[in-house]
Structure formats: structure tokens, C-alpha cells
Amino acid sequence: MTTGASNVAEDSAGGSDELLDSRIPTPVAVITGAGRARGIGRAICRRLAAMGYAVVVHERDADSSARLEQETLDGWRGAHSVVDEIIAAGGRAVSVAGDVCDPQTAVALLDAADTLGALAALINNHGSAGEANTYLAHETPASLWEDTFAVNVTSLQRLGAVLVPALIHSPARQRCIVYLSSTAGHRALRRYGAYCASKAAVERLTEQQAIELARYGIRVNCVAPGLTPTDMVDGTLERAASTAGVPVKQVMESAVRFIPLRRTATTDDIAGAVAFLAGNDATYITGQILTVDGGMTLV
């Protein structure tokens, strides 16, 4: 596990100062799974930094060999590149690399947050597709089922064991947790067994913690993205195309036809929903699942 604690800007965060209060330390947001160039996590980091948060940018592996070929060709450096973007915009950020299933990663995230200010937001964006579009539920290999739940569900409890107590005692004015689920957490999808079940668990955990943490003034909500072109979704579509024996483009076009707004989401669409729930306009909202899918689950 490595940290990027040296990548700290000295200036305050740019953009809106709605979260800033000179009487308390700078609010800090920890955002997991944010090292992909096309990822939702990157968009969330940039949006929250613009709101006034200092940001801890997490990625699983800082090793360049873990990056996609196109990312390498583009000179992408994972979480370090996200940190550079935030600093260039006048914000403050550090990077942390580590497996979310390892309890020491949670400790490293908290240590990094402490270098920036007061922990105010935990955005659990990481996740595994669990090879969705491959197996029926009963066919899923035990190791794949267990790994999917380890990343998508168990890791949330392990991160929370360290970071929730810090949120409880934090002097930050507003404190919140935002989970990232999926529309697959709302309903069953054929060959999505491990993924659907794990994301449904995330939504129930959201409601559970909303009840438990309300007494401390901590809000807990969840954003459920619809079809959003990212590296993870690309893999899911490729598996679907392979199973059906058709081009990936045809699978995508077919999916879009079932979206009332007739387009896929952008990573900024999802980041905007997270920013709303982490901002001052949502201070009386907790225990909610905000679906951002262009109306897809209505049809």
C-alpha cells in the first residue's frame, strides 16, 4: 500500500466556498475507487473539490501495470493524476492506494484525511462487476461470488469500522456517507446474480446506517447510477455481446432504446447527484436511494 501524502496543495479548495467555515478545519472527503481516467470516482473528486472539500483520492493499486493500455498511452497515472487536476484547479488533495478489503487501507485513508483537515464525507465509490452478464446465480463460481461480496459489501463495513468513528467525532459542520449502488440493486437481471445481490445489500446498508448514525448528525444516502459508460460497464457490455453473438455497439444501442431520456449517463451526471447529497442543500435528507438512470427503471 502506498500513499501520496506529498501531493498536498497549500491553497484552499477552489469553486464554491459553501462548505467552508474559518472557525473549523477544512472539510475532507474520502473517495474510494477514484483512479480510473473514465471513472465516476474521478468526476466525484473534481466536483467535491470544486465545492470546497479537500479530497483523499483512493485507488486499489498505484502500480502502472494495473492500468488499462489506453490509460498508459495517454500518460494517465491513476489517483496521482486526479490529485494533480485538483491541485491545478486550486484545491487540496492526497492519494492513497490499497485494497479496500484490507483494514490497513482504512487506517491509511484516515491518516491521509487528517493531513488535510476534518473528515466530513465518505464516498464509497469502489465496486466490482462480479463478471455480470456471465453466470446464472446458481452457476456462479463460489470464489467469484465471495470476491464480489467482499469488494461490494464486506469492505464497506471494514472501512466504516475505522472511518465512521472518526466521522462521529469530527468537528466538520456537515458529515455524511454516500454509497454508490446501481439500478441492478433495485431489480433482478438475468446473469447478474452476484452483482444484483451485492448492490441490493449496499442499499439496505444505506438505510441501516441512516437509522443508526442519525443521532450523531451523520446523513447516509446512496446514489444508484444507470447505464454509464466506464471501463467496468464496457466489460459488462462486452460479455453480453459475446453471449448474444452480436457486436458491442448493437448491445449499447439496444440498451439506450429502453432509456426514456434516450442517452446514457455521463460520469458528471452521477457526480452531480453525489455532490448534491454531500452538500448543504441535502442537510435534511438521509436514508435515501437516489436513482440516476434517465428513467430506465420506470419501463
Blueprint (SSEs and pairs):
Blueprint: E1 27-31, H1 40-51, E2 54-59, H2 69-73, H3 79-88, E3 93-97, H4 103-116, E4 118-124, H5 142-169, E5 175-180, H6 193-213, E6 218-225, H7 231-244, H8 248-256, H9 267-277, E7 289-292
Parallel strand pairs: 1-2, 1-4, 2-3, 4-5, 5-6, 6-7
Spans of 5+ residues with little confidence (pLDDT < 50)?
1-17
Main β-sheet, spatial strand arrangement: 3-2-1-4-5-6-7
Q: How confident is the prediction overall: mean pLDDT?
A: 91
Helix content: 40-55%
- SSE order, as H and E? EHEHHEHEHEHEHHHE
Which outline best applies?
globular
Question: What structural class results from the helix and strand content?
Answer: alpha/beta
Q: How many H/I helical runs?
A: 9
Our measurement of the CA-to-CA distance between the termini, rounded to an integer number of angstroms, reads: 44 Å
How many DSSP-defined strands?
Answer: 7
Beta fraction of the residues?
Answer: 5-15%
Question: Could you name the key traits of this structure?
Answer:
9 helices; globular; disordered N terminus; seven-stranded parallel β-sheet; alpha/beta; 7 strands; single chain; 299 residues
Question: What does this protein look like?
Answer:
There is one protein chain. This protein is α/β, with parallel strands linked by helices and 299 residues long. The protein is built from 9 helices and 7 strands, in the order βαβααβαβαβαβαααβ. Strands 3-2-1-4-5-6-7 form a 7-stranded parallel β-sheet, sandwiched between helices. α1 (40-51) links the parallel β1 (27-31) and β2 (54-59). The longest helix has 28 residues, at 142-169. The protein is globular and about 60 Å long. It starts with 26 loop residues before the first strand and ends in a 7-residue tail after the last strand. Mean pLDDT is 91; it is low at 1-17.
